[in-house]
Amino acid sequence: MTAPTSTAAAPGTAAGEAARRRTFAVISHPDAGKSTLTEALALHARAITSAGAVHGKGDRRGVTSDWMEMERARGISVTSAVLQFDYRGRVLNLLDTPGHADFSEDTYRVLAAVDCAVMLIDAAKGLEEQTRKLFDVCRHRGIPVITFINKWDRPGRDALELLDEIEREFRLRPTPVTWPVGIAGHMRGLADAREPGTMLRCTRAPGGEKAAIEEALTAAVAEAEFGEEWRTATEELELLAGTGAAHDQADFLAGRSTPVFFGAALTNIGVRLLLDAVVDLAPAPAPREQAGGAAPRPLDGEFSGLVFKVQANMDRAHRDRIAFLRVCSGVFERGMTVTRAASGRPFSTKYAHSVFGQDRTSVERAYPGDVVGLVNATALRVGDTLYTGRKAEFPPMPTFAPEHFAIVRPADIAKSKQFRRGIAQLDEEGVVQVLVSDARGEQAPVLAAVGPMQFDVVRHRMEHEFSAAVKLEPLAYTCARRTDAEGGAALNRSRLVHGEAMTRVKDGEILALFPSRWHVGSFEREFPRSPLEPLIAAH
Ligand code: G4P
To answer: Alpha helix (H) ranges present in 484-538?
Structure first.
């Protein structure tokens, strides 16, 4: 397999450095092993010295913050860390994505900042709900996907059956690069489709926190040691080769096929091969499409970057607000003054950091594909474009259709000021959307969420960060549609169709809220001339 991108551009230039970069995320259903795999990848790349350092498992060093207490209590990951590490002369940027379904909106935004995704599948469970949703977003955004079938060290499903499921459900051709010798739960090693007749025996290193021990075996040795299991693996690989399941780089980049790897993140088996695949197969950053059909800015051109995430109070020691910026073109240099496309105002980048778990170090330079944390970036919003020189602007980030709505009020009326500040902040960060209706007024904003857990985060953060405990009163709406002022007025006037028009605080867009799809249909019949536009569905 050859590297998909040219590294001919001079090192040190934006294009040369971009060619060395691979910016990717792991997408999976909760519990498939994403945290474990992230640690294993970083461990292989020597970014950390022992597993557990990234996510703070086992009370080792980790990301901490106020609302992460809640995340720890629930055993889920709701915030994102960005890991950068060197591997085989390349720079890998791994953007961690929140796993819980309720945080899908956050995850979708992270996917706007990557060039490739690793789809992690639990060998026993196959495709799961969140995998499906995230895969849809990758397809929608044209992000190529590498598949890793995890937990092969314990009983699971048949390998061919798992491939069949991917092909059937995703209309995506699986092209196995490695193939397990031994069924799930009896993993002997991996056969490599690129080198028929060889086997890699993989053994867990003592303690399980080090890279697995790998030993290349000839076919004769594999046959002698593993007999039937080795023969089955080679037969299956031959069968697959006969059906045209060989990796094809152009098909992969076009989203028509996915190279498949097998392994066990927990014991680091197959992880090195996956990391090699990220280097060899994943695309390097490319010039990015601009809003309104403007020509993409060349990688070697002036600086431009996209804010894909804004997060406040990442940990107690740093009470601040970080905007995560993906560099899209040119060279980012700390201290440079950039322009925020939305306002045309200058923004100083004096406080630029790389964020690695809880550690921060100043970033002096960053290249296309890199992620920079801009500290105290109160003026920045998710979806913002920053640039130098000629104006650049990337297409707006999609917002996802909220399905849960609740009126929010301060528990203590004396805390109204803190309440307003907190709600505005959470809206800007995109933790929830904040809506206001004519009927209820600004004193009783309505929170709109993709999943109900977003409300828990609001409750928790309002109380602990903004000292303004809140009361939430759920509203019986489940569907939101975009409409215009006339459509909103029609909805508010209508007695036959239950619903309510709300204005999104941030951009003045009018949303029509309905209790069910059935109500949407009856509104459309009653007011055929009022436009109702669906928002992007989160599933
Ligand atoms: P997530 O971030 O996708 O939610 O998953 P996470 O890595 O936390 O893994 C979920 C569970 O699956 C963990 O077990 C983890 O140890 C286990 N796991 C991950 N990869 C593998 C693997 O390759 N093989 C096996 N056998 N297990 C794996 P847990 O008991 O829930 O948590 P823990 O106490 O081990 O941390």
So the answer is: 485-493, 517-526
Q: How far apart are CA 380 and CA 321, in angstroms?
A: 10
Backbone region of residue 4 per phi and psi (left: phi > 0; alpha: psi in -120 to 50; beta: other values): alpha
- Range(s) for CATH 3.30.70.3280 in the chain? 404-534
CA angle 38, 322, 365 (to 5 degrees): 75
Q: How far is the CA of 122 from the centre of ligand 1 (A)?
A: 10
Cβ atoms 27, 120 nearer than 8 A? yes
98 in a labelled binding site: yes
Specify the CATH class of 404-534 in words: alpha beta
Rounded to an integer, what distance in angstroms lies between the CA atom of residue 228 and that of residue 234? 10
Q: Which of 180-189, 260-269, 396-405 has the lowest mean pLDDT?
A: 396-405
- Tell me how far apart the alpha carbons of residues 288 and 304 are, in angstroms, rounded to a whole number: 10
Q: What atom in ligand 1 is closest to the CA of residue 38?
A: 7
- The answer on pLDDT for 140 being more than 50 is yes
HSE-CB of 369 using CA atoms within 13 angstroms: 29
For 47-81, the pLDDT digits (tens) are 544 434 444 443 333 333 334 444 444 433 334 46
Handedness of CA 217, 219, 223, 229 (dihedral sign): positive
Q: How far apart are the first and last CA of the chain?
A: 35
CB of 99 sitting under 6 A from ligand 1:
yes
Q: Is 156 in the pocket of ligand 1 (CB under 6 A)?
A: no
Q: Could you give the CA distance from residue 108 to residue 445 in angstroms, rounded to a whole number? A: 25
Atom of ligand 1 nearest to the CA of 29: 3
pLDDT at position 81:
61
24-50+72-84+96-281 is a CATH 3.40.50.620 domain: no
Ligand 1 centroid to residue 31 C-alpha, Å: 6
Dig out the tokens for 137 from the structure: 């977003």
99 labelled as ligand-binding? yes
Cα 292 to Cα 304: distance, rounded to the nearest angstrom = 16
User: Which residue ranges does the chain devote to CATH 2.40.30.10?
Assistant: 304-387
Q: List, for residues 444-453, the tens digit of each pLDDT value.
A: 899 999 888 7
Q: Which residues contact 252 (CB under 8 A, 6 or more apart)?
A: 144, 175, 258, 259, 281
DSSP for residue 266: G
For the domain covering 304-387, report its CATH number: 2.40.30.10
Mean pLDDT of the chain: 84
Find the 24 Cα to ligand 1 centroid distance in Å.
21
Closest-CA residue, ligand 1 atom 7, reads 33
268 close to ligand 1 (CB < 6 Angstrom): no
Residue identifier of the C-alpha nearest atom 9 of ligand 1: 33
